[in-house]
Specification:
- The protein is mainly β.
- Helices cover 9% and strands 41% of the residues.
- It has 3 helices and 15 strands.
- A hairpin with an 8-residue loop joins β11 and β12.
- The termini are far apart.
Length: 183
Amino acid sequence: IICMIISPHVAIQEGMITFPEWMTEEQQKKCIQQNGIDVTMDRLFAIAPDVTAVLTEDERIYKPLQEQTPQDGLFLLRTGLVYDWSSDFKVNVPLDHCAMIIIRSSLNRVGCLSNSGNFDSGFSGNCAGVMSSRAGNVKIGLHSRVAQIMFYKCESASEYNGVYQNLDPTKNWSEQVPMVVMQ
């Protein structure tokens, strides 16, 4: 099977992604790109660097997160720290699709890196990822477009049913998923 990128207009029309309620129609139009949809950074959490996480087949022990407060509308990313960011954009991935997030080139050019896991078939929740600055401190505005989500047509082995499924979109995952998960 050939993997095919879905048009941003089709993804919006079919409800694969929902714009935040606070966003104007003009802001929504700015988000629609050639092959994907720009998503905003609406919350930012510093990941504790000095706490050891544990990920095995039987348990997950997550690192604590410290929510960052924007100063004068700007989040500060300090070099050497890694941040968990989330967006007010909601994703509903159909069973025969998946989605991936990539960083916007403007952030690449100032030394930021961002990535996310695959948004599996059947996943429903907020857009999110991790971000770091590798070239000195960087300030990013609240509700700034930081990444782009692209939807792909695919064949799925099964439907996603993990711990991040259908979380309350007004809260960060860390406020809803236990910091220690036994499987």
